[in-house]
Amino acid sequence: YRKNLSFLTIKRVYSRNFSLYGGELVYGLQPVFAALSAKKRKKIHQLYLAESVARTKQGRVLHSIFTDLTGKEPVVESKNRLDLKVEGKHHQGVLLDCSPLNFEPILPLKNRINNGGLYIALDQIQDPQNFGAIVRTAVFFGIEGIVVGETKRCPLTPTVAKSSSGAVEFINIYETVSLPQFLKESRENGSWLVVGTSLKSDVSSNDLSLDKNTILVLGNEGKGLSPAVSRECSTCLLYTSDAADD
Predict the structure, then answer these.
(1) Of the candidates 39, 212, 192, 38, which has an alpha carbon nearest to the alpha carbon of residue 121?
(2) What is the pTM of this model?
């Protein structure tokens, strides 16, 4: 009985992605490697390695990077203890206790409004897996940055870091109080094309030219673009599968 009670107590303590330092636990080999390499996190508290991982080349590399950054030694524990810390998520034997990522203020992006580039704006994307996949794709294709609204959006969580394979560490994600207002200001600036995506559009993504500064707006998983955001788009296009082959 006492053994079961002890296990339940430990599980309860670790039930919220437990951090001893008031931060968060990033999990997975690539997300942790990215968090250590990008040096974007304000504080790196502790690295946890499963016993089996600590003996591998990947474990030794993470050990070295972490020690160089913090002067500390990683904590080597059993896989079961790591499981408890992140409620059984697929951590690959690696956890990093660190400060959370924050959204960047929108003002610096407004100051760069004439500097060109392709940005992505997300209208109420709420699923962390989708958010992470978008971030991963954006980094792969060299997107300048991502803009999200202040409400009804997915926060920057360890799940987003995992689903982005750590790419969230290598791109600026900006937050604006009002996404429609931001898009309106960008469009009225005259040098930006604001392009929405819609299943009802007759314009193919093959027709999109990137010779002008562009903000590509992606809508919610179920509802698509909100009316307020859709009104601020210069045009809307239909993404076609053959566009990816061009």
Answers:
(1) 192
(2) 0.84
